[in-house]
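RESIDUES AND SHAPES:
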Amino acid sequence: MNNWQNQISFNPKVCHGKPCIKGTRVMVSVILDNLAEGLTIQEIVAEYPPLTLENVLAAIAYAAVLVREEELLPLR
């Protein structure tokens, strides 16, 4: 699986500590929202020039790790 740890950062001074692609202010949630809206990976990379295919795959891998957690909480 994609080594997302090398591409996702958490910094309280960047985007309020939300997970972002390292070296950018593009949050993982923005990538996932775009995928949920039906955009392709290529369209997302074109829309956000700092992103690469590997960045988008890292965001997906990170999300997959989160949903594997033992305790899932209902959405608000």
Summary: Residues 19 and 29 are 8 Å apart (CA to CA). Strands lie at 8-9, 20-21.
